[in-house]
Design brief:
Length: 668
């Protein structure tokens, strides 16, 4: 792992040495912060053991006194006024520190995986990102705090932050790498309620829900027992954990090679320069191979490129650059000789071809790529793909021959890097949520679920469990608003079962049955070719509608699309009833789409559907005696029902027939 630049010192370590010359505050409490209005807001920090600590807030100039315990830790509360500011908070144990430009307002925690992490303008970009960055300069009373990514097998009290450290005033510069969903949600609250808003971004792309949940909560779930024991048994020493992982990974790679026809024992026969690959198909690298003929393929494949080595390069050392977007594991060969190997996506591949291997004329570069999930292939920028010798380059972008070998479904489960992988139970809760516990917040917005796509039934249990876990830790039932997975991948052609639909169902069930929760449906704004839809402005707006109606009391505001409430069989048709159904209509003005109907044979047929008041009547001439209806039941459904406010109907089904993920009880 790369060494990380510390933004705050470890309070625990410093406390143990009793070296405080003055109070030390965690980054949650810094200048430019927002503190939750009209509550008893906890505040804490470190001082010399036994020292009296005073805290004075300028909104009422009242001074509160407490004493640091034997470890130097102190904690008290401030009674906060209505929204306003700027104020100061002064902390003193004889030596003073002053937090400046403090606002009192509404604080929201923004968490989840990559669609919550997705920034305004960073590794991905929202619509109109340049304009959005400039407009951010208008919202100085929105404040941003971004928790630095970290994992831990044990709960931590300290954390590090990005964006320069601590709370930042919203600006084109500070918002650039911040959660776009979080920012646009916060902007809706700021504009509609006319209050300062503080946003805490604690997110990590590609993560399951289990790492975000505490060990205490996961112990209540029988599926988590083995995974909890594995994390609990990890050695404290990080280097020792790293060695355990490397040993396990070497064993796994040996098994992968033993199942791959490209190897004969230890010899990579498909890397040989004499192999005839002329009958292999080609793909234009750089490209994610899902977009080049390998849709939904996870597993191993070989990619080969023939190169003409100049005479001037013969006998000289050659640099090989493959960039960082080789997804996920690669074994890279030059004329059958292994010249480099990297274990994870995102790491730069800079390999050296020894001089004795470099001969003039035809040579073959072969890359054995193992995609462990999600996108796969070689898709680094074209200018990062090259061979270089003495300042001359041969570019490697272009057609590569390829051949798939072993899908992940036939491979043993890949070991988890216990020192860096975020996908271990509890580790993100321990490192990124536990340090926040107690900081006064109004509520949480949550955008996650893609990684749990194969475990929709289990997600029905894990999402409510995590919500209850966080609320228990904070000590009150704050609002928890869920973003439902957007449409994605290839458009639906036939009705049937679908794993993403089962995750969406689990999210809707949590919003319906867990108190003080809500659901933002995105079934109409996703993108078939991108799991990260760029219209995060609408995501934030829809979350904002829920908060405005359910948290801030705008009771006449419609905040949800049509929500299935019941059905009635009427002869050869089924009538579906909805809540939030005023002004039901087709989004595009055409016939309703996305409804399927089935009889007792459980065979699904596309159905005709018509609006009657606040209900929809569904029928199909091929189903004489219908018993069940589904709507938008697919990863990327064709659907167009909405209400008069233009909010989409939440996908639903009337049946409870077993789904694809009903028997998947594996921990992540």
């Amino acid at each position: 792992m790369k060494p990380r630049k510390l933004i705050t010192a470890s309070l625990a370590i410093v406390a143990s040495l009793h070296l405080y010359a003055r109070p030390v505050m965690p980054p949650l409490f810094s200048s430019n912060m927002v503190i939750q209005q009209q509550t008893n807001a906890p505040i804490w920090g470190m001082a010399k053991a036994g020292k009296k600590v005073t805290v004075t807030a300028s909104w009422d100039n009242a001074t509160i006194t407490t004493t640091a315990n034997s470890k130097g830790y102190w904690r008290t509360t401030l009674r906060t006024p209505q929204a306003g500011g700027p104020y100061t908070i002064t902390i003193s144990d004889g030596q003073k520190i002053k937090l400046e430009n403090v606002m009192v307002g509404e604080v929201w925690l923004c968490s989840g995986q990559s669609n919550m992490e997705m920034p305004i303008d960073g590794w991905s970009q929202v619509k109109n990102y340049e304009q959005e960055k400039q407009e951010a300069n208008q919202y100085a009373n929105i404040r941003l705090l971004q928790v630095r990514k970290n994992i831990s097998p044990k709960p931590l009290n300290d954390m590090e932050t990005n964006l320069g450290g601590g709370w930042q005033v919203c600006s084109a510069r500070s918002v650039k790498e911040f959660s776009a969903t979080g920012y646009f949600f916060g902007r809706e609250i700021h504009k509609s309620q006319n209050v300062p808003v503080g946003l805490i971004d604690a997110s990590w792309g590609g993560t399951f829900i289990e790492p975000w949940t505490s060990a205490e909560a996961l112990r209540l779930h029988p599926d988590m027992k083995d995974a909890l024991e594995a994390v609990g048994n990890l050695p404290e020493d990080k280097a020792e954990r790293e060695q355990i992982y490397l040993d396990q990974l070497d064993e796994w790679k040996q098994k992968v090679r033993s199942l791959d026809p490209g190897y004969e024992g230890e010899k990579a026969v498909w890397a040989s320069s004499t192999l005839n690959d002329s009958q292999w198909p080609t793909m234009a690298v750089p490209v994610q191979w899902e977009r080049a003929g390998l849709a939904d393929y996870d597993g191993a494949a070989w990619l080969r490129r023939t190169i003409d080595i100049p005479k001037s390069w013969a006998g000289k050392e050659v640099k090989l650059s493959m960039g960082g977007l080789v997804d996920d594991i690669d074994f890279t060969y030059f004329n059958g000789n292994l010249v480099g190997q990297t274990n994870s996506y995102g790491e730069m591949r800079n390999y050296t071809i020894p001089s004795h291997l470099v001969k003039a004329g035809r040579s073959v570069l072969s890359v054995h790529v193992i995609d462990t999930g999600g996108d796969g292939g070689i898709y680094s920028p074209a200018d990062q793909l090259y061979l270089e010798c003495k300042g001359e380059r041969i570019m490697l972008a272009g057609d590569w021959h390829y051949k798939t070998t072993t899908p992940m479904s036939l491979l043993p489960r890949i070991p988890v890097n216990n020192t860096s992988s975020p996908n271990q139970v509890t580790v993100l809760y321990n490192a990124m949520i536990n340090p926040l516990v107690g900081f006064a917040i109004r509520g949480t917005i949550w955008y996650q679920g893609c990684n749990n796509e194969h475990k929709g039934y289990q997600y029905r249990e894990l999402l409510p469990l995590m919500i209850r876990d966080w609320r228990t830790k904070w000590g009150y039932d704050f609002p928890f608003y869920i973003v439902q997975l957007a449409n994605y991948k290839q458009l639906q052609t036939e009705p049937g079962d679908d794993e993403w639909a089962e995750v969406r169902e689990a999210q809707a069930m949590a919003a319906q049955h867990v108190e003080n929760s809500g659901l933002a449906c995105l079934i109409d704004i996703g993108e078939a070719g991108d799991i990260h839809p760029r219209n995060k402005q609408e995501v934030g707006r829809r979350l904002g509608l829920i908060a405005r109606a359910k948290t801030y009391g705008e009771q006449q505001l419609e905040y949800s699309g049509p929500l299935y409430s019941g059905y009635q069989i009427e002869g050869n048709s089924i009538r579906i009833s909805f809540d939030h159904a005023k002004g039901l209509r087709s989004a595009d003005g055409g016939p309703l789409r996305g409804f399927a109907i089935a009889g007792s044979d459980h065979r699904w047929h596309w159905a005709d559907a018509r609006i009657e008041g606040q209900s929809v009547v569904v029928t199909c001439p091929d189903v004489i005696s219908p018993i069940a209806v589904r709507y938008a039941w697919h990863v990327n459904p064709l659907c167009n029902l909405q209400n008069g406010e233009g909010l989409p109907c939440v996908p639903f089904r009337t049946d409870d027939w077993p789904g694809l993920s009903i028997n998947n009880h594996q921990a992540n």
